[in-house]
Specification:
The complex is a heterodimer of chains A (283) and B (113). With 283 residues, chain A is an alpha/beta fold. Chain A has helices at 14-25, 73-77, 102-106, 145-156, 172-178, 192-208, 224-233, 245-252, 257-260, 264-279, and strands spanning 2-6, 31-35, 52-63, 83-85, 90-92, 112-128, 131-138, 162-165, 183-189, 212-219, 237-242. With 113 residues, chain B is an alpha/beta fold. The chains are: A alpha/beta (283), B alpha/beta (113).
């Protein structure tokens, strides 16, 4: 079973939910936790340990000057500006390339080949006996987050239970994370921003065809707008975490509320049960 | 010699555009014949990577000089590699005004590297 944790808005508590859920589950079974927020992965802060790095490469164009006639077709095709065809040379901007392979397809001379280029890495560690943490790390200045997410998810394949911690937003990296998940947990907060972005994230989950439920974090008890929205859209409320100084204190020192505060391991176990019901898959 | 000038509209009377890759038009002037050709820039609303693509358009039109407000890093690299010189025009005048300033030697080259 694969569970994605997403939110739309940043800072709502995706990683908090993912880390606590993973820790709780790892008490009783094997869990793979995949940090798909590859531009700023942070789950290793909850689960420190020595990691093994696997580099991630993506194909970028290389020009065979013996064949190139500088016709310009590749540069006209590339919507990312990764090739600029001049009078007597082709300038490559590999950091702009999205590895679509279109330049080599449109080249009438067969002059465009591909070479691998490292854009990041996947770091694997086992900080708990039953928990494998797989963190995608995109190199600074690179754009191909989905390539790192694909590689991180691939390394987690074969685990019976996998959690994907998505990046904020609803763009390509989030869609890449959601693909193939059995259920999606949308973490929100009861603020106008939280609701606005929950609306967007719920729509993405629906389009990708993944059943979704909602965790309300930092609830001040006045969640009516969020609850109304969830009722209207048929999104079950999977868990509510109150706005509490005690919880914030644990979180701020890099702790886990399911380990450090009484009652929360049971609540995260309950969250998992609710997710299983949502996904409708047998465990 | 062909000079490319970034412009907000077509023709040599159009105001100069300060942005390079996202200029609405490129006006190409042949300094020998005085003839000009205006090209609508398809990259105005592109998501990114407009600099290298705009330089390819300049090269296609055989421009060896471009007059604009400023250029980004990727565009600068491509301009330098293509031997296209860039000059800064920061005034509010027309394409024709900018060209006159360039011909009079009043425009400073933009640093490309």
């Amino acid at each position: 079973m694969k569970i994605a944790i997403a939110s739309g808005k940043g800072g709502t508590g995706k990683s908090t939910v993912a880390a606590n859920l993973a820790f709780t589950l790892a008490r009783s079974r094997e869990v793979a936790l995949v940090d798909c927020d590859v531009e700023e992965p942070n789950l290793h802060l909850f689960f420190p340990g020595s990691a093994v790095d696997v580099p991630v490469t993506t194909p970028v164009p290389v020009i065979d000057l013996a064949r190139c006639t500088f016709c310009g077709e590749c540069g006209k095709f590339c919507r990312f500006g990764a090739l600029s065809v001049l009078k007597d040379r082709v300038i490559l901007f590999p950091e702009l390339c999205h590895s679509c392979g279109g330049c080599s397809l449109v080249c009438p001379q067969g002059a465009v080949g591909e070479v691998p280029r490292t854009v990041g890495r996947v770091a694997c560690s086992c900080s708990l006996p039953a928990l494998t943490l797989i963190s995608g790390v995109l190199n600074e200045g690179e754009v191909q987050a989905p390539a790192i997410i694909r590689a991180a998810k691939l390394l987690a394949e074969g685990h019976p239970l996998t959690l994907y911690d998505a990046s904020p937003g609803i763009a390509c990296p989030v869609i890449e994370t959601l693909e193939g998940s059995d259920a999606c947990v949308l973490v929100t907060e009861s603020t106008p921003f939280g609701l606005h972005d929950l609306r967007l994230a719920a729509e993405v989950a629906e389009r990708v065809g993944i059943p979704a439920g909602v965790v309300i974090n930092r609830s001040d008890g006045q969640d009516e707008a969020t609850l109304d929205f969830c009722r209207e859209r048929g999104l079950p409320i999977l868990m509510t975490v109150p706005f509490s100084r005690e919880i914030a204190a644990v979180q701020n020192r890099g702790g886990l509320i399911c380990r450090d505060l009484p009652g929360w391991e049971e609540r995260f176990a309950g969250l998992f049960d609710a997710i299983v019901r949502l996904a409708g898959v047998s465990q | 010699m062909i000079v490319g000038i970034t412009a907000r509209a077509a023709g040599t009377d159009a105001p100069v555009e300060q942005r390079f890759g996202r200029a609405p038009y490129f006006v190409f002037v042949d300094t020998e014949t005085g003839k000009s050709e205006s090209i609508k820039n398809p990259l105005v609303d592109a998501a990114g990577g407009v600099g290298p693509r705009a330089v390819q358009m300049l090269a296609e039109h055989d421009a060896t000089v471009v007059i604009t407000g400023q250029v980004g890093g990727n565009a600068a690299r491509a301009l330098e590699a293509g031997g296209i010189k860039a000059y800064a025009y920061r005034g509010s005048g027309s394409v024709a005004d900018a060209l006159a300033e360039y011909t009079a030697g009043n425009l400073k080259p933009l640093p490309l590297s």
